[in-house]
C-alpha cells in the first residue's frame, strides 16, 4: 500500500492549488485523513483532518481557505487550497488511516505520502 502525492508547485499569492494523494494497493477503506505541512525551520503542523464520516477540522490559519475531501471511488485524498498566502509555503504531507488486504488479511494502519512542495510567491 502506498500514497503518492502530487499537485504542489509555485503559485502567486491569492492563487489556488489542489493537492492529491492517491492510494494504491488493495485498499478497502479510507478511515481518516490528515494533511500536514512543514515550513523551513519550523515544526510539522496539522493543517486539516477528515473522518470517513465526513467530519472535518482545520487549523485556524487555513479555515475558510482550504478544503479537505476524499474520493472513495478513486481512493484519492485531496486538499483544495484557495487564497494562498506566502506563509502557506511548505512541504505538504498526507497521512491516511487505511484498511487494506495484505497477505490475505485485512490490516488497518497509517500511511504517509512522500510530501509535495508548495511555494507561494510573486
Topology summary:
Layout (H helix, E strand, L loop, with lengths): L1 E5 L2 E3 L5 E8 L2 E12 L6 E7 L4 E3 L7 E6 L4 E6 L8 E13 L2 E8 L3 E5 L2
Parallel strand pairs: 2-11
Antiparallel strand pairs: 1-3, 3-8, 4-5, 4-9, 5-6, 7-8, 9-10, 9-11
In short:
The chain has 122 residues and is mostly beta strands. It contains no helices and 11 strands.
Could you give the order of the helices and strands?
EEEEEEEEEEE
Return Rg in Å.
14 Å
Q: What share of the residues does DSSP label as strand, in percent?
A: over 45%
Count of helix runs: 0
What class, by secondary structure content? mainly beta
Q: Any low-confidence stretches, pLDDT <50, length ≥5?
A: none
Q: Report the mean per-residue pLDDT as an integer.
A: 95
Helix percent reads under 10%
Largest sheet: 7 strands, mixed
Apparent shape: elongated
Structure summary, number of beta strands: 11
Measure the end-to-end span. Answer: 38 Å
Primary descriptors:
elongated; 122 residues; four-stranded antiparallel beta sheet
How does this structure look, described?
The structure is a single chain. This protein is an all-beta fold and 122 residues long. It has strands at residues 2-6, 9-11, 17-24, 27-38, 45-51, 56-58, 66-71, 76-81, 90-102, 105-112, 116-120. Strands 2, 4, 5, 6, 9, 10 and 11 form a seven-stranded mixed beta sheet that branches. A four-stranded antiparallel beta sheet has the order 1-3-8-7, with no helix packed on it. The radius of gyration is 14 Å and the shape is elongated. The mean pLDDT is 95.
